[in-house]
Specification:
This protein is α/β, with parallel strands linked by helices and 328 residues long. It has two domains: 2-250, Aldolase class I (TIM Barrel, Alpha-Beta Barrel); 254-324, Non-ribosomal Peptide Synthetase Peptidyl Carrier Protein, Chain A. Helices cover 47% and strands 13% of the residues. The strands form two sheets. Strands 3, 4, 5, 6, 7, 8, 9, 10 and 11 form a nine-stranded parallel beta sheet that branches. Helix 12 packs antiparallel against helix 15 (309-324). It is globular, with a radius of gyration of 20 Å. The relative contact order is 0.11.
Length: 328
């Protein structure tokens, strides 16, 4: 948290809320839950975005999805991200969610999942600029908190309508825009187009967060210099290296610090999900934290199938102690 505390002057503003850092954990379904999100916040992520929340679920079965918008008070500013295809349903969900105190409500316009896109949600909204305008205008008019959006560059190379979408979001009341520099068709492959992100920065007056191909602390500075973004959003690289928010390369983090973070993350996961589910859901993160130290698949399998938290921690501790004090 030292890096975060040191940056007291606002880097940019989310409506009337000051944001004190220039890196943000990207919202990722199945990853940006409270345990991992709050850990990244401690390490320097300047805001917390929730996993995306299906708007109809907020209205029709809120208890089922409540964990997705549960957050720790010190995570603020917290942005609740929702998705859907119907303006009125998105508004109803947003009105209900703002009662839980988010700093903003974000509309997901970037998810490339085919099931979501075919329903006209996520990146599927990019094919309907008029609907995007209605959604942003409706929410901006009725909410007391800012409305933001996360987009891609378009559906595919033949429909890269990011300039139009960015202008629509700003002109209809959007307070911030996050841009993943790939099309929906690219998914997470190919190269992110930082030139397109730079175009959007020049086009709009609201803060822009750039997302895509940021894997190291040096990449953070390169994206800022290349695009002029207000902040850098980091997704998959943060799962491998949450210390990136403290501007640290993974190879510079000693085993002792990995052990401390591993314990803290696991404890938070067990507390949030319960002992059984908490361990199961933690394994995908543990596989990334410990990847540099695992010698072979058998060792990895033994660690990630440990039946209890105690057994897992014992194996992980031995692994990290060996890394800290290798045999000569």
């Amino acid at each position: 948290m030292d890096f975060f505390i040191a940056m007291q002057k606002p880097v940019f503003w989310l409506g009337a809320t000051p944001v004190l850092g220039d890196t943000v954990l990207a919202p990722m379904d199945g990853y940006s839950d409270l345990p991992f999100r709050s850990l990244c916040r401690e390490l320097g992520s300047a805001m917390s975005y929730t996993e995306f929340i299906h708007a109809p679920d907020v209205v029709q079965r809120p208890e089922h999805v409540r964990p997705r918008w549960t957050y720790l008070p010190w995570e603020q500013p917290v942005v609740f991200q929702i998705y859907g295809s119907t303006p009125k349903m998105l508004l109803e969900a947003a009105l209900r969610l703002q009662a839980y105190g988010p700093a903003a409500i974000d509309i997901n316009m970037g998810c490339p999942d085919g099931r979501i896109v075919r329903r006209g949600a996520g990146a599927g909204l990019l094919r309907s600029p008029l609907k995007v305008a209605r959604i942003i205008r409706l929410l901006a008019r009725h909410l007391e908190v800012p409305v933001t959006a996360k987009i891609r560059l378009g559906l595919d190379e033949h429909c890269r309508n990011y300039r139009l979408i960015a202008r629509i979001i700003e002109e209809n009341g959007g307070a911030l825009l996050a841009v993943h520099g790939r099309t929906r068709a690219q998914g997470y492959g190919g190269q992110a187009d930082w030139d397109a992100i730079a175009e959007i920065v020049q086009l709009v007056q609201i803060p822009v967060l750039g997302n895509g191909d940021v894997r190291t602390p040096a990449d953070i500075e390169r994206m800022k210099a290349h695009t002029g973004v207000a902040g850098v959003m980091i997704g998959r690289a943060a799962i491998r290296n949450p210390w990136i928010f403290a501007r640290r390369r993974r190879e510079d983090v000693p085993p002792e610090e990995v052990w401390a973070v591993l314990q803290r993350h696991l404890a938070r996961s067990l507390d949030f999900y319960g002992p059984s589910r908490g361990l199961v859901l933690f394994r995908k993160y543990a596989a990334q934290y410990l990847a540099p130290y695992l010698k072979d698949r058998a060792q990895r399998r033994a660690l990630l199938t440990a039946p209890t938290p105690e057994d897992f921690l014992a194996q992980a501790k031995r692994l990290l102690e060996e890394a800290a004090c290798p045999a000569h």
